[in-house]
Design a protein that fits this description.
Blueprint lengths: L9 E3 L25 H12 L5 H16 L1 H14 L9 H10 L5 H4 L2 E5 L8 H20 L24 E4 L6 E4 L7 E6 L2 E6 L1 E2 L2 E2 L2 H15 L15 H13 L3 H9 L2 E6 L6 H9 L13 E5 L4 E5 L6 H17 L14 E3 L5 H19 L1 E8 L4 H6 L4 H17 L5 E6 L8 E5 L3 H10 L6 H23 L5 H9 L9 H4 L1 H6 L4 E6 L4 E5 L8 E7 L4 E8 L7 H18 L2 H4 L3
Parallel strand pairs: 1-4, 5-9, 9-10, 14-16, 16-18
Antiparallel strand pairs: 2-11, 2-17, 3-4, 5-6, 6-12, 7-8, 10-11, 13-19, 14-15, 18-19
């Protein structure tokens, strides 16, 4: 039996035996995240610096790294890290640091800077928001049941199961603001079979189980219809927008809500299985849909919930996820399951005698709360107004065609991004690709540093008139192979960034910080001007999130069987960023590669 998850920032009332079944059966057999060989990591780090630094900067940094590698301090830090990894009861040497530094201790608003979203394909059978929402809810309930009883098969690769630990934080869970670092609360599944619905800034709760029987989609729809009718009858103070604020501000405002007598309302929202948001918007374009699913007006949300299903009045739909304790792969599985389930559901009549039952969760909103909400709304509006999004759809490229070219689909798209980025920036810029490490116990992600000397050589050749087609294709093949190798190393726990982080975290306050970490190249090379991640789903028309730096772009791509969808996001600011321009570079790069190689030409080189 898997052990109860032990994470320092999690408050849980679940019993150990709630983690059982096939979903968790492989946990004890999973290896722990390794501590890579120090010399190997340093060599990879130096190699990653060369294509993004000037020659003089590179020589300086290479010397700094070599000096560190020879130092007694480096050996001692490596020893400490290995000792930490070997501590009894510690699932991962990285987990606690990573969760705190990247999420719980991160104080900027979760929206738009942390949360992500999936935009679903339209369901032509659904013309009403409540109809679409009810079918998705029915699918999510069915998926939750498989998590609760453990019958859900664990995620897996072709060769092994993946860690299921993050499924603990999917349902009946919520991030809780706190200073200096947030907490995460999970509650018992049984006795909390509730869903919170938000409409017109008003919150409602209903149980999806009645007399020990799960409500049908038709019964859920009728419940939602009455909730919408009730919600639209009067406005309310948009308390949910407080969750969009700076985490320290939200911590203080949550305390103010508690002092105003809202403990039971907060408990109901935080303990609910998930949240459903019914937005009044009628988005038309892909970009409009992304903005609505991602954040909309911010008034009809509770952004601390890990799972929010979003449906618009035009019956378009999607999912918004809070990222702190669960990454995209498990929630994509939930999203795909819910959509597939909804598509398979017939429209059934509501049984005679069914009477919808729900409760409104009424916040007490004295003047101090009203003022705080108004201030949070103003800050939220400014933050999301600066977010610029462009969504591209390439029907000419998909997984099937890329594989026929003999290429890894992910490496192929990464080279498209590199060519576009190089042209857009005028040079290679540090690029992040998220690589999943869930083959290890409590694993999450590692960085794949996508810029390599080989990718730079190929990008340069593409705009070099003296380079012929044969040379360009050979350089592309080399760049693709290098990227695939870097990805495998990251997935296998042998990347650069998490290991260096572990060493840095173990420098004692009384010890000098090693020069490798004060060298400007360390900060610059991990300043992600381009941050990328991949999801593959036929049910998504886009997915995305914000850039991780005001100077960069966030690029989320969905490699479907016969198309490629890329979501580009940036902040409009003094740095002159523009998602439309970057998207144009991506489109040009994709077409340039398409004209460079086809099935016939591949066989010639």
């Amino acid at each position: 039996m898997a052990s109860k998850p032990q994470t320092h920032n999690v408050m849980s009332t679940r019993e150990i035996d709630e983690e059982h079944g096939a979903l968790f059966a492989q946990q004890e057999q999973l290896p722990k995240l390794p501590v890579p060989d120090l010399e190997s990591t340093l060599q990879k780090y130096v190699e990653s610096l060369k294509p993004v630094l000037s020659e003089s900067e590179y020589k300086h940094s290479a010397h700094v790294v070599a000096e560190f590698g020879r130092s007694a301090q480096a050996q001692e830090l490596q020893r400490r890290l290995k000792a930490r990894a070997a501590e009894p009861g510690r699932a991962s040497w990285l987990e606690e640091w990573w969760n705190d530094l990247s999420y719980m201790g991160y104080r900027d608003p979760v929206i738009p800077f942390v949360s992500y979203h999936y935009s679903y394909n339209d369901d032509p059978r659904c013309t009403r928001a409540t109809q679409r929402a009810a079918k998705l809810i029915s699918g999510a309930i069915a998926f939750r049941a498989r998590v609760v009883d453990g019958s859900l098969e664990p995620d897996s690769t072709r060769t092994s199961a993946l860690c299921s630990h993050s499924y603990n934080y999917m349902f009946n869970a919520c991030r809780i603001p706190a200073e200096p670092s947030d907490k995460f609360r999970t509650v018992a599944y049984h006795g909390n079979e509730t869903i919170v619905v938000v409409r017109n800034s008003r919150f409602f709760e209903f149980s999806f189980v009645r007399n020990n029987v799960v409500l049908s989609a038709a019964e859920i729809e009728q419940t939602l219809e009455q909730i919408v009718q009730t919600a639209d009858g009067a406005d309310a103070v948009a308390v949910g927008v407080l969750t969009t604020d700076h985490r320290d501000t939200w911590t203080r405002n949550r305390r103010m809500l508690l002092d105003a007598g809202n403990a039971s309302v907060l408990q109901a929202i935080e303990a609910a299985a998930f949240v459903v948001c019914i937005e009044p918007d009628m988005p038309q374009t892909r970009e409009e849909l992304s903005h609505v699913i991602w954040h909309a007006s911010g008034r009809n949300r509770w952004f601390d919930k890990p799972c929010q299903f979003v449906v618009t009045d035009s019956a378009r739909a999607g999912f918004c996820g809070e990222h702190s304790m669960i990454d995209g792969t498990p929630t994509l599985r939930l999203a795909d399951f819910a959509v597939a389930h909804s598509l398979a559901l017939p429209d059934g009549p509501v049984p005679r005698g069914f009477n919808p039952a729900f409760n409104e969760l009424r916040f007490q909103t004295p003047p101090t709360v009203v003022r705080a909400v108004a201030q949070a709304q103003s800050r939220f509006d400014a933050n999301v107004a600066a977010q610029h999004v462009c969504v591209l759809n390439f029907p000419a490229f998909g997984k099937d065609k890329i594989k026929k070219l003999g290429c890894s689909p992910d490496a192929f798209v990464q080279m498209v991004i590199q060519l576009a980025s190089t042209r857009h920036h005028g040079r290679a810029r540090p690029t992040y690709e998220a690589s999943m490490t869930r083959s290890f116990l409590h694993g999450r992600t590692e960085t794949c540093r996508s810029v390599s000397s080989d990718s730079v050589a190929w990008c340069t050749s593409m705009d070099d008139p003296s380079a012929d087609t044969g040379r360009r294709i050979k350089l592309l093949r080399t760049a693709l192979a290098t990227h695939s190798r870097l990805t495998r190393e990251a997935v296998n726990g042998h990347g650069v960034d998490r290991h260096l982080l572990g060493l840095r975290m173990l420098v004692a306050p009384t010890e000098p910080m090693p020069a490798i970490f004060t060298d400007p190249a360390y900060t610059y090379s991990s300043h992600w001007f381009v941050s990328t991640s991949q999801m593959s789903s036929e049910h998504l028309c886009s997915y995305g999130w914000s850039a991780v730096t005001p100077r960069g772009y966030g690029i989320a791509y969905n490699i479907r069987e016969n198309s490629l969808i890329i979501h580009v996001a940036c902040v409009r600011n003094e740095h002159g960023l523009n998602s439309d321009r970057f998207a144009q570079c991506l489109e040009t790069a994709a077409h340039d590669i398409a004209s460079l190689i086809d099935v016939k030409k591949v066989s010639e080189y």
